[in-house]
Amino acid sequence: MNEDIFSQVDHYISDLLAPEDKALTDTIQSIHNENMPQISVSANHGKFLQVLMRSCKAKRVLELGTLAGYSTIWMARALPEDGKLITLEVDKHHAEVARKNIENAGLSKKVEIRIGKAIELLPDLIAQTKQPFDFIFIDADKPPYAAYFDYALKLSKPGTLIVCDNVIREGKVLDRNTTDEKVKGVQKLNESLRDNKSVTATILQTVGAKEHDGMVIALVNNID
Questions:
Q1: CB 190 within 8 A of CB 216
Q2: How distant, in Å, are the alpha carbons of 90, 104, 106, 163, 192 from that of 140?
Q3: Superfamily, domain 4-220
Q4: Run of H or E residues at 54
C-alpha cells in the first residue's frame, strides 16, 4: 500500500473531527519560526488525547515534554474550569515559545510550565504532590522512558491513564541488536509492561501524518 494514503487518511480524519484553529496553527508556525524540531503530535492524536482525558474525567494532568505547547493546548482544552495541567520541558527556549503559545490560546491559568530535566523534576514533584494525577502524557526524551513510567505510577491512582508516545519507532523496536538509545529506551518500557501488575496496558500502532509509530496506553490498577 502506498504510504501516502496513511497521511491522506490522517488529514481526512483531522479535517472532519480535529480541525485546527488559529491558536494551534500559530503554534505549529512558531515551531518553524524558532527552528525547533517538528515533532509535535498530529491534530488527530491531539483529539485522541482529549477523548482519553474526558473518558477518565481528568482534572489533573501531567505532561512530560512540552516543546512548543501544541499537545499541551489540546489537552488543556479538555480540562474542566477547575482543571490543572503541569508540563515539564528541559529546554528554556522551547518553554518560552510554549508559554507564549499557551497564552495565545487563553490557557495560561490552567497550565504550569516547569523547566528542567524531567528525570530531576519528577522526584520533587512526587514530594510536593498531594493529589495524584488523573492523566499523564509522556512524550519526552526516549532513553529514560521506563524510568519516567515508574515515576508516573508514583504520581497516579487507580483509574489514572498513562499514555507514552513514539514507542514503535517505525518498527525499529523489532531490532534486538539496535544501538539506537531511543529505540532501546522504548524497548525497555514496552517489555516492562508485560509483567507489570500495576497496570492494564496495550500498545496502539499508529500510521498517518507522523508516519509509523505507536502509543502505550496504560490504565493504573493498583499502586504498590
A1: yes
A2: 9, 23, 24, 12, 18
A3: Vaccinia Virus protein VP39 (3.40.50.150)
A4: helix 43-55
> What is the per-residue pLDDT across 141-183, written as a single tens digit (0 to 9) for each?
999 999 999 999 999 999 999 999 999 999 999 999 999 999 9
Contacts of 214 (CB under 8 A, 6+ apart): 166, 167, 168, 203, 204, 205, 206
**CA 14/CA 208 separation, integer angstroms:** 11
In this prediction, residue 44 carries a pLDDT of 95
Backbone phi and psi for residue 188, each to the nearest 5 degrees, phi listed first: -60, -45
Residues 109, 85: Cα–Cα separation, whole Å: 9
In the structure, what pLDDT confidence band is assigned to residue 223 with cuts at 50, 70 and 90? low
**pTM to 2 decimals?**
0.96
59 dihedral zone (left: phi>0; alpha: psi -120 to 50; beta) = alpha
